[in-house]
């Protein structure tokens, strides 16, 4: 796949360099809910290197969603530093953050979050609408990316005409279309049946093998088994951070599963 | 995002709610349609009034004989015997703001041609009268200076008289009888229509040489009126003063005594008509602006609904890299497209309703091109003004909350 050899997320220099993709230092996040202060993150520090595949686990309210929002530049920390590819993004303006989300980060959500009544192709083109890509390039790049996630023949379909797994793959194509540095997936398999979940994980593993850094939030331990590293949050802090001891290969697992019609 | 993509996006977003979009546009359509119809009818009426005033004569003033006071008894206008041809000559000679003058008098008479007859006004005047009144001939020519000198029995017919006496026949060279005298018809005037000043049919008239009417029909040497043409519209007020002081001087009126003549300036009539038109236009413009305002509020309402309905879409767009400005621009363009389409349809609606009004009520219409351009721009501006707040609200959304919105 030519796309996967593109420089942005598979740049050998980035991989060889010691600069981590994500470097978080003593990040705290406090929300004011009426009279009470809610400490969503209480001093989190972590480094995630290029080419890593991290599963973030934790109960709801553990701070993992807040952490993901900060990693995705949707929210800023109350204190502490977040370096994305060595650049501090804590103090950037909304506009600069939007630019970073557009260029460096791809999002995949539990609920797919595709635009309805908009074709798979156009959904995939969406991030390119906000970067300076010509109309012709937009379409050809979106088609390439759809082919990469195995949906070349579904480009003109609307989300309502696609299965859940296909919709999530369109969402992944959309996340990949601007060739990001980092893919953030928030419970991407939460709405999918088990086989489709493994299929999505198979796609993630393939992308990761080609050099893409992936951070995935999940509360299913089986899904976390497909990652390389597991970070567990509790009460706004990292409780555990370790290499997955018994990693699974999704393509192997798929062979053992019964085929269900899409 | 480039403009063309944003524009297509707006069209599609509006196309998804066709019923809602068209109802929203309806406010704009009625507003702009009202503006166009008002301007069309107003401008048409103004143009028609100008045309009618021009038809009265070019920058015309009318000097009439005045009233007299006989032992405390005031007669009406037209009773003095002091207005004479020499006054008319003096007005042309001595008033610098006057370009021409034609003396005149008149009498009502019964006209006979063959077995047709008709009662009308016989005006005696001079050949330059037709120039002063700006009144072209449909057929034949005016009588001449010589005809005036010789008191020739020749006549020029107004269009109404021609119709009643001759129907479709050619009157030129025919002989008609005025009272007991035979007159040869030398010319027929083009129709001039109803006088905007008095409401009289200006074509129900016959013209003959001044001296002929004075001596052979009236037996009076004085004049009833002098038609004066000022050098320009602006000069007509100056000309009025010049004529008044000249005639007081010539008629030897003492400073405290009233005029024995009246000068009527037709520019007054025109100004009064124009002022009435202006008041009407202002009133109608206010009504039209209110309609446009209501249309704008409709757009604001729908844009607010649309922004809150599409909260999640806004969140998605922001997550993939749309800035607040991108989102704001998207909704502003949507509002202006509503305004623009509404404006264009409103113009069509306005033009059609103007035409219907003009055909059913017989009012003239005139829609100047600037009105179309201005009202389209105004519709877009109104839509953008009222779309600004909803767009701003969209642009200030927090992407995290927007994405969570159900």
Distance between the termini of chain A: 25 Å
- Spatially, the strands of the biggest sheet of chain B line up as 4-5-10-7-9-8
Morphology call of chain A: globular
CATH class identity of chain A? Alpha Beta
Percent helix range of chain B = 55-70%
Quote the average pLDDT of chain B.
87
* Radius of gyration of chain A, whole Å: 18 Å
Output the radius of gyration of chain B: 33 Å
Strand arrangement, major sheet of chain A: 6-7-8-3-9-10
What is the H/E order of chain A?
HHEEEHEEHEHHHEHEHEEH
Outline of the structure:
By secondary structure, chain A is of the alpha/beta class. Helices cover 35% and strands 25% of the residues of chain A.
Topology of this protein?
The complex is a heterodimer of chains A (262) and B (406).
Chain A: H1 7-10, H2 12-16, E1 22-33, E2 36-48, E3 53-58, H3 64-71, E4 79-84, E5 87-88, H4 94-104, E6 105-108, H5 120-129, H6 135-148, H7 164-176, E7 182-186, H8 194-209, E8 213-217, H9 221-224, E9 229-234, E10 237-243, H10 250-256
Parallel strand pairs in A: 3-8, 3-9, 6-7, 7-8
Antiparallel strand pairs in A: 1-2, 1-4, 4-5, 9-10
Chain B: H1 3-16, H2 18-56, E1 60-65, E2 69-70, E3 73-74, H3 85-94, E4 98-113, E5 116-125, H4 129-132, E6 137-140, H5 145-150, E7 154-157, H6 159-166, E8 175-178, E9 181-189, E10 205-209, H7 210-218, E11 225-230, H8 235-250, E12 261-265, H9 266-309, H10 311-319, H11 324-361, H12 369-395, H13 399-404
Parallel strand pairs in B: 5-10, 7-9
Antiparallel strand pairs in B: 1-11, 1-12, 2-3, 4-5, 4-8, 4-11, 6-9, 7-10, 8-9
Helix pairs in contact in B: 1-11, 2-9, 2-11, 2-12, 3-8, 9-11, 9-12, 11-12
Please provide a written account of the structure.
Chain A has 262 residues and is an alpha/beta fold. Chain A is 35% helix and 25% strand. In chain A, helix 5 (120-129) runs parallel beside helix 7, helix 7 (164-176) packs parallel to helix 8 (194-209) and helix 8 runs antiparallel to helix 10. Mean pLDDT of chain A is 89; it is low at 1-16. Chain B has a 6-stranded mixed beta barrel with strand order 4-5-10-7-9-8, surrounded by 4 helices. Chain B has 2 domains: 3-52 and 272-404, no CATH class; 81-259, no CATH class. Chain B has helices at residues 3-16, 18-56, 85-94, 129-132, 145-150, 159-166, 210-218, 235-250, 266-309, 311-319, 324-361, 369-395, 399-404; strands at residues 60-65, 69-70, 73-74, 98-113, 116-125, 137-140, 154-157, 175-178, 181-189, 205-209, 225-230, 261-265. The interface between A and B is medium-sized, with 25 and 20 residues.
């Amino acid at each position: 796949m030519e796309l996967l050899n593109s420089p942005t997320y598979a740049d050998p220099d980035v991989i060889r360099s010691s600069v981590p993709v994500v470097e978080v230092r003593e990040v705290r996040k406090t929300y004011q809910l009426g009279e009470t202060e809610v400490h969503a993150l209480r001093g989190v520090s972590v480094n995630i290197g290029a080419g890593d595949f991290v599963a973030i686990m934790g109960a709801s309210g553990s701070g993992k969603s807040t952490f993901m929002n900060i990693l995705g530049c949707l929210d800023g920390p109350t204190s502490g530093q977040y370096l994305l590819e060595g650049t501090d993004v804590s103090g950037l303006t909304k506009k600069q953050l939007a630019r970073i989300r557009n260029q460096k980060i791809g999002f995949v959500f539990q609920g797919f979050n595709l635009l309805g009544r908009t074709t798979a192709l156009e959904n995939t083109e969406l991030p390119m609408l906000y970067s300076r890509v010509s109309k012709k390039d937009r379409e050809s790049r979106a088609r390439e990316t759809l082919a990469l996630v195995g949906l070349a023949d579904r480009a003109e379909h609307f989300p309502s005409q696609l299965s859940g797994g296909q919709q999530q793959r369109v969402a992944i194509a959309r996340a990949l279309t601007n060739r990001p540095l980092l893919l953030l997936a928030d419970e991407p398999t939460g709405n999918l049946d088990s086989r489709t979940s493994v299929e999505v994980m198979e796609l993630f593993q393939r992308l990761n093998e080609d050099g893409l850094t992936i951070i995935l939030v999940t509360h299913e331990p089986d899904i976390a088994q497909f990652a390389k590293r597991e970070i567990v949050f509790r009460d706004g802090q990292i409780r555990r951070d370790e290499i997955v001891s018994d990693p699974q290969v999704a393509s192997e697992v798929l062979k053992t599963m019964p085929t269900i019609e899409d | 995002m480039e403009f063309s993509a944003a524009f297509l996006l707006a069209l599609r977003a509006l196309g998804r709610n066709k019923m809602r979009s068209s109802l929203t546009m309806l406010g704009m359509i009625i507003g702009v349609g009202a503006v166009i119809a008002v301007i069309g009818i107003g401008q048409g009426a103004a143009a028609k009034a100008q045309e009618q005033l021009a038809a009265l004569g070019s920058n015309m003033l009318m000097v009439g004989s005045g009233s007299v006071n006989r032992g405390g008894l005031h007669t009406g206008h037209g009773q003095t015997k002091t207005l004479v041809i020499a006054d008319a000559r003096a007005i042309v000679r001595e008033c610098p703001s006057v370009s021409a003058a034609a003396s005149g008098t008149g009498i009502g008479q019964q006209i006979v041609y063959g077995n047709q007859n008709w009662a009308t006004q016989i005006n005696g005047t001079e050949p330059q009268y037709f120039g002063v009144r700006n009144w072209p001939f449909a057929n034949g020519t005016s009588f001449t200076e010589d005809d005036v000198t010789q008191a020739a029995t020749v006549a020029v017919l107004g269009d109404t008289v021609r119709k009643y006496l001759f129907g479709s026949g050619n009157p030129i060279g025919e002989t008609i009888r005025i009272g007991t005298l035979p007159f040869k018809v030398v010319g027929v005037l083009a129709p001039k229509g109803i006088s905007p000043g008095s409401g009289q049919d200006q074509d129900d008239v016959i013209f003959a040489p001044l001296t002929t009417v004075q001596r052979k029909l009236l037996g009076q040497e004085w004049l009833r009126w002098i038609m004066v043409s000022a050098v320009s519209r602006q000069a007509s007020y100056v000309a009025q003063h010049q004529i008044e002081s000249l005639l007081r001087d010539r008629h030897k009126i003492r400073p405290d005594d009233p005029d024995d003549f009246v000068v009527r300036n037709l520019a007054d009539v025109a100004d009064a008509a124009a002022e009435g038109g202006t008041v009407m236009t202002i009133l109608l413009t206010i009504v039209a602006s209110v309609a446009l305002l209501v249309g704008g509020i409709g757009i604001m309402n729908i844009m607010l609904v649309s922004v809150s309905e599409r909260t999640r879409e806004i969140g998605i767009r922001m997550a993939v890299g749309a800035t607040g400005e991108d989102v704001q621009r998207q909704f502003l363009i949507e509002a202006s497209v509503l305004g623009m389409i509404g404006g264009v349809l409103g113009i069509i609606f306005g033009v059609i309703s103007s035409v219907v009004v003009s055909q059913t009520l017989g009012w003239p219409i005139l829609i100047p091109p600037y009105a179309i351009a201005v009202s389209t721009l105004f519709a877009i501006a109104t839509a953008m003004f009222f779309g600004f707040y909803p767009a701003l609200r969209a642009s200030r959304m927090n992407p995290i909350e927007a994405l969570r919105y159900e």
